[in-house]
From TrEMBL:
Source organism of this protein record: Sporolactobacillus inulinus
Pfam families: Citrate_synt
Cellular component annotations (GO), alphabetically ordered: cytosol
EC number: 2.3.3.1
Name of protein: Citrate synthase
Length: 247
């Protein structure tokens, strides 16, 4: 019997979502460069999930849905404050927090495409609030509630800092989120698919995916660079300086 370690050379599935060919990344057939320059992160999420870019009306409804679902139970922040903040890994906190989100969602066990689409919006919105909240808790600060009037990237920076970012700062983060939105069938995506293939719930699938993403052979190196708002601010500041020098 022939054994293939690590699934190397094995075609596990096909996908129309994203593709990397000749060093060119595309989402649903759109070049990543074009999306980063001409769209927003919310539009890209919609594209990845639905196959087409949203109309202005669809985008407005989608943004309102994200804003409406951004708040998280206070109990999750209270739980974070009980963690050993001087040693806990941020990805471990995110993994445990997402798992606990499922406990508070009365629709967690509902199956079906429509139910999972609703929960996907909730997860997309709430994960940003969890990450920003934990960043502040690590600094001895209270979490900042999401502002429904702000777009996704702008709101994330606002929740991290407690003050509104500049338009340039928000746009830089928006582009970074677009670039990281989807990278084919990587380890965390594969892990999530295996989990939900057992008919487990979406919260279990995303929790499993975060566990895989935490590993040093997958996403841990990237997470080290964004573990607190000071490092994020410094990165954005350097990008702003670079852009101004190029003008």
């Amino acid at each position: 019997m022939t054994m293939t370690r690590g699934l190397e050379g094995i075609v596990a599935t096909t996908s129309a979502i994203s593709s990397i060919r000749d060093d060119v990344l595309t989402y649903r057939g759109y070049r990543i460069q074009d999306l980063a320059e001409q769209t927003t992160f919310e539009e890209v999420i919609y594209l990845l999930w639905n196959g087409d870019l949203p109309t202005s009306e669809q985008l407005s409804v989608f943004r309102k849905s994200l804003a409406a679902d951004a708040a998280v139970p206070d109990e999750l922040f209270a739980m974070m404050k009980m963690f050993p903040l001087d040693q806990v890994h941020p990805m471990a906190v995110l993994r445990s927090s997402v798992s606990n989100l499922g406990i508070y969602d009365t629709d967690a066990e509902r199956a079906g495409i429509e139910a999972n689409q609703t929960k996907a919006i909730r997860l997309q919105a709430k994960v940003a609030t969890l990450v920003a909240g934990f960043s502040r808790i690590r600094q001895g600060l209270d979490p900042v509630s999401p502002d429904p009037s702000k777009h996704f990237a702008e709101n994330f920076l606002y929740m991290m800092r407690g003050k509104a970012p500049s338009d340039l700062e928000a746009r830089l983060l928006d582009r970074a989120l677009i670039l990281h939105a989807d990278h084919e069938l990587n380890a965390s995506t594969f892990t999530a698919r295996v989990c939900v293939a057992t008919l487990s719930d979406i919260y279990s699938g995303i929790t499993a995916a975060i566990g895989a993403l935490k590993g040093p052979l997958h996403g841990a190196q990237m997470s080290k660079s964004c573990t607190c708002s000071k490092k994020l601010d410094r990165s954005i500041g350097l990008m702003i300086i670079s852009m101004k020098r190029l003008r």
